[in-house]
Each structure stands twice: as structure tokens, then as C-alpha cells.
Design a protein that fits this description.
With 543 residues, the protein is of the alpha/beta class. It has helices at 3-12, 40-43, 57-69, 95-103, 152-164, 229-232, 324-336, 343-355, 394-411, 416-446, 450-463, 467-478, 484-503, 515-540; strands at 34-35, 50-53, 75-79, 92-93, 116-118, 120-125, 128-133, 147-149, 169-183, 189-199, 211-213, 217-220, 241-249, 264-266, 286-289, 296-300, 305-313, 360-364, 377-379. The chain starts with a helix and ends with a helix. Mean pLDDT is 91; it is low at 1-13. Bound molecules: flavin-adenine dinucleotide.
């Protein structure tokens, strides 16, 4: 089925993608199909064509598609923990990520997990609000594309259930401890010929001997905290910020309500006074509040739960033990969601923060992809490439990497080196747009200087203009418009608008100074804008 046909089919299905029957639901928590480490010697009497390390969203989707495309090949999917993951990552799938899942034959993977459709973004800044909807479908039917938000662990378990259902995937609970291969004198890995597998930490007794597995090809999908990334990309990565999260609980919204609106400015959206009803100004949408220490994100994980993620810029996290972290979060939340504008939401946030026993925090990084030059293995997903989570684009980039790579492997034209080179080329536009946008927007939204504050204001004013000023950025964010030149055009248009706001004295974020000073600071802001985007573009463009 082609992409166009998929879209047409989705148009007709207004409930898509969160409702309907999931054919692998019965395997969700089944352990029968998961082999233990003790059974590995027995399993190794057969040959494995592919080993996939890690059954996160990317490893599981990849193993499934490989199994579909190559029914005569056998895949070992090694995952150190097959229980439902409990993490504060990957809870919103952008529309383009949903398209990638469709392409992989996994379009109904959001069914049965109480997932919620997402229609776009509500943005709040200095008491003003605007709506950035997702793009219209080209057919014009059924309006706009949709994203989905959900419990990360539930999506992963549905993806894993699809793998369990495949006869030619062997699911193994174990940990890969080493990539086997040749190193040069400088210690650089030259090629991978296999993997060393040990017991999963939770099940091993520490004395179990490890086993070597020698497939044709190894896929490294060990994710955000990859232990094998350093073999491909030894660069030390600094943290940009931390995301700290907790969950709001509330009543579901009543069915049949519609939560999208026109692109651009919204005059005002009433928020419920009662803390038990859904407190979001626009349920079934992502929410970004820009007036805290860093951007504050809110999105539903189910009809009854909303994730709160507060960004704390910089590599250092305030101490939780001393109470400093809660103080910073409290101040940030009350600035971002002022009581006089959002009374119900403000109360619920502050009460929930006070009652939360544990605040969960995670570091946010940017790791540009490097070419997969090491023979015998492919790094894919977060082990290859990481962007700031502000724009929720990680799984979208990773899933499209799976779509493109598996298509090229199936076509099997040329050597593996040529396939990898082609893959790297084809994946680049979408990865570049989503990754660069994530860090550029974070710099603007965290606005740690007056110039960045001016750029943030210009960005808000720009997005509120409607038409393509709103919809192209929405296309970059959702992964639906993977056009790097257009991204650069809009970014510098925002920078020029910042110049105009400053020189004309209309900026509320950066005030004061005579005309000469305003002109000088406006052009300095242009220089800062270039410094925000160009280094990341340059890193993304490396061969
Ligand atoms: C705070 C935060 C919020 C985010 N929010 C979003 C979002 O809303 N939307 C979005 O699209 N993206 C989001 N992301 C990014 C997204 O979470 C990642 O892009 C995605 O999880 C990458 O999937 P993966 O399969 O590559 O890696 P992971 O999800 O990290 O999975 C790796 C898997 O490998 C297993 N594993 C690791 N090492 C081994 C080993 N040695 N042996 C066996 N198994 C192993 C792990 O147990 C795990 O199951 C967010 C990231 C962060 C940090």
C-alpha cells in the first residue's frame, strides 16, 4: 500500500488511530513467547540472520518489519527487560511518526491503550494564547493530520506484542554486553561480527557464562543511554537541560467535544475552575507555556492523566534532597501558568507538585547522527541520533529511519556499504528539520538572555499570523514538512521580525534604549539567531 492510499484510508476513519481492535492485544503481557537466558544455548543450535539489540520503540518496530519483509530469515530480538517500561519519555507521537507506523504495518498499535488523539499545540506567552494545529491532509477530507499521546510503556508493549506474534522473531530476555569484532591499534572498532549476550540483570545470578551470537547483521537499538554509541561516535555530549515530570489526574472530557481551532491567535480560552475536570485549556492538544524558567509542556497520556514536563535549562539540576528542585519547579509553574489566567490548572499543578512523592528528571541532549561506517552493524534510533525532547520528534525520526532502511534492505540493491550510504542520504531531510528545530526552539523558548527573549517574542508573534506562518512551522514540528531550506527561511524570517520589533520599539520583551542602541542591539540579535541555528545545522550536515 502506498503512502497516498494510507492517507486516503485514514481520512475515512475519523476514530483513527486510537480506537479499534489491536490484533496482538492478547500478547501484551504474555511471557510465553519470551525466551529466558537459560534457553540461549538451545536457541543457538540454529542460525540467526539478524540480531536486534533493544526492544524499545525503534528496535521493536525494526524487528517486526524485518520479520515481515524477510519471512525466511530469523531475527533475535534481545531486550534486557520485557516488563512494561515506566519512563517519562516518548509519550507523544507526531503525525509523521503515525504515518511511519502505518508504512511499517503497525498503524493500529495505539488501539486498546487508552491513547488520546492530539490535534495540535496550544501556546501561552505573557497572558496571550495561540493555537498551532497540525497540517491539513492533502485530500481536504477529514481536515487535519493527527498525532497521538499515550503511556510510553503501553505503546512499547503493543509493539513488542507484534514482535511476539511473528514466527521468525525470537524474543530473548538478556543483555548484550559486548560487540564482537576487530579493533585497530587506536582502539577503534573496524567491524562487528557478532554480539556477546549475558543474563538480564534482573534474572542472572552473576555466574552464568555469556554466549556469542554471530548473525549476518547486528542492529544497535540500545537507545538514549546507549552503551554502544561510543563505538560509532565517541564525542562527549553536554546536557542542554533537564525535563522534570509528574502526572496530573482528572476526569475525562465528555465525548464528542472538538478541540481544534483556527491557525494563529486565539482571544482567550476559559479553563475549568474545578480541579477534577480536565484542566487543560484545549484538551486533546499539546500545551506549551513559555513564561517559566524554561518551557513547560503538558499533554494527555490518557483521558484521565496529563503529563507535566518542566524544562530546567543548563546541565546542572537543583538538588532534590535540599528542596531546591521543588522550589524551582514551584516558581516556574506559577509563572508559566499564572493563577489569574488559569485558576483551575494552576491549583491542580501546585497541589499535585506538593503531593508528589518523587519528581522524575531526565537529561536532554543533542547528538547528531554520524554515518554508519562500521561494517556488520547498523546503529539506529537514539543510539545513532538524539534531539531535544521539547518537540517530541524522537520516535518520528527513528521510525522513519526504520521505514527507509528496511525499504532499502528489501530492495537489496548494491552492497551493504551502498545501502547504508543511501539510507544516510534519504533520512537526512526529515532528521535535520526535526532535530534542528528542537534545539533552536529550545534556545528561544528557554530564552536565557534578552536577545533570546526578543526572538521568543518574535516567534510567538510570527506563529500568531496564521496561514503559512503558522502552518509551515507546524509541518516542521510534526515531521510532515521535511524541507530544510524552508526551515531556514522561516527561522530567519522570525529573526528579521525580531529586528523589526526591536527597532520600532514595539517589543515588550526587550525594551529601552535610543534608536541607535535599538538598531545595534537588533543586529546583534540577528547575529545571536544565526548562532542558535547554524552550529546545529552544520553538525547535522556532516557526512
Ligand atoms: C524527556 C524525554 C521526552 C521525550 N518525549 C518524546 C515524545 O513525546 N515523542 C517522541 O517521539 N520522542 C520523545 N522522546 C524521545 C524518545 O523517547 C526516543 O526517541 C525513543 O525512546 C528512542 O527509542 P529507541 O528504541 O531508540 O531507544 P529506547 O527507547 O531508549 O529503548 C532502548 C531499549 O533497549 C534496551 N537495551 C538497552 N541496552 C540494552 C542491552 N545492552 N541489551 C539488551 N537491551 C538493551 C532498553 O531496555 C530499551 O528497552 C523523549 C525523550 C526524552 C528524554
Amino acid at each position: 500500500m502506498t503512502c497516498g492510499e494510507n492517507s486516503a484510508q485514514l481520512d475515512e476513519n475519523l476514530d483513527w488511530p486510537t480506537h479499534g481492535h489491536y490484533e496482538h492485544a492478547h500478547l501484551y503481557s504474555s511471557r510465553e513467547e519470551v525466551h529466558t537466558f537459560a534457553s540461549l544455548p538451545q536457541l543457538l543450535t540454529r542460525r540467526f540472520d539478524y540480531v536486534v539489540i533493544g526492544a524499545g520503540p525503534i528496535g521493536a518496530a525494526l524487528a517486526y518489519k524485518l520479520a515481515l519483509d524477510h519471512p525466511l530469515r530469523t531475527i533475535m530480538l534481545v531486550e534486557k527487560n520485557w516488563n512494561e517500561p515506566d519512563r517519562i519519555v516518548g509519550e507523544l507521537m507526531q503525525p509523521s511518526g503515525c504515518q511511519a507506523l502505518e508504512e511499517l504495518g503497525l498503524g493500529n498499535v495505539f488501539s486498546g491503550i487508552d491513547a488520546v488523539p492530539a490535534h495540535g499545540y496550544f501556546i501561552s506567552y505573557r497572558g496571550k494564547q495561540l493555537y498551532v494545529p497540525y497540517m491539513n491532509r492533502p485530500s481536504g477530507k477529514d481536515g487535519r493530520y493527527k498525532g497521538v499521546s499515550f503511556h510510553h510503556g503501553r505503546l512499547v508493549m503493543n509493539l513488542r506484542a507484534a514482535c511476539k506474534a511473528m514466527k521468525n522473531i525470537v524474543c530473548l530476555e538478556a543483555g548484550v554486553t559486548e560487540l564482537l569484532g576487530e579493533h585497530d591499534k587506536a582502539g577503534e572498532l573496524l567491524y562487528v561480527k557478532g554480539v556477546k549476550v549475558g543474563p538480564a540483570k534482573s534474572s542472572g545470578n552473576g555466574n552464568d557464562p555469556e554466549h556469542d551470537v554471530f548473525p549476518q547483521l547486528t542492529f544497535v537499538c540500545d537507545g538514549i543511554t546507549s552503551q554502544f554509541r561510543k563505538e560509532l561516535n565517541p564525542t562527549k555530549i553536554d546536557l542542554i537541560s533537564h525535563f522534570c515530570g509528574f502526572v496530573l489526574e482528572h476526569e475525562p472530557i465528555s465525548s464528542g467535544e472538538h478541540f481544534s481551532g483556527p491557525a494563529g491567535a486565539i482571544q482567550s480560552v476559559a479553563t475549568p475552575e474545578s480541579s477534577s475536570t480536565n484542566p487543560l485549556p484545549m484538551p486533546h492538544n499539546g500545551h506549551v507555556f513559555l513564561d517559566g524558567v524554561g518551557p513547560l509542556l503538558l499533554y494527555q497520556m490518557s483521558e484521565r492523566e496529563t503529563r507535566v514536563l518542566t524544562d530546567i535549562p543548563g546541565g546542572e539540576l537543583p538538588s532534590e534532597a535540599s528542596g531546591q528542585l521543588r522550589r524551582v519547579l514551584g516558581e516556574s509553574l506559577s509563572k508559566a501558568v499564572p493563577k489569574h489566567v488559569y485558576p483551575g490548572l494552576n491549583r491542580l499543578l501546585m497541589d499535585t507538585l506538593a503531593q508528589s512523592k518523587r519528581i522524575r528528571c531526565i537529561g536532554c541532549k543533542f547528538i547528531p547522527a554520524t554515518s554508519n561506517r562500521i561494517d556488520g552493524a547498523v546503529w539506529i534510533g537514539d543510539s545513532l541520533n538524539v534531539r531535544h525532547p521539547l518537540t517530541g520528534g524522537g520516535m518520528t525520526v527513528g521510525l522513519w529511519d526504520v521505514v527507509i532502511l528496511t525499504k532499502l534492505l528489501k530492495e537489496n540493491k548494491g552492497s551493504m556499504k551502498q545501502i547504508k550510504a543511501q539510507w544516510y542520504w534519504e533520512r537526512r531531510p526529515r532528521a535535520l528539520v526535526v532535530n534542528t528545530l528542537s534545539v533552536a526552539l529550545h534556545a528561544l523558548f528557554a530564552a536565557e538572555t534578552k536577545e533570546l527573549g526578543l526572538l521568543r517574542e518574535a516567534c510567538f508573534v510570527y506563529l500568531a499570523r496564521g496561514s503559512h506562518y503558522t502552518m509551515h512551522p507546524s509541518g516542521f514540528l510534526s515531521g510532515l514538512l521535511p524541507n530544510p531550506l524552508l526551515l531556514i527561511y522561516h527561522f530567519f524570517s522570525v529573526a528579521l521580525l525580531a529586528v523589526e520589533l526591536r527597532i520600532s520599539g514595539k517589543s515588550t520583551a526587550y525594551q529601552g534604549g535610543n534608536l541607535l542602541l535599538r538598531v545595534l542591539s537588533a543586529f546583534y540579535t540577528l547575529f545571536i539567531a544565526a548562532g542558535v541555528i547554524l552550529p546545529f545545522l552544520w553538525k547535522e550536515l556532516q557526512p
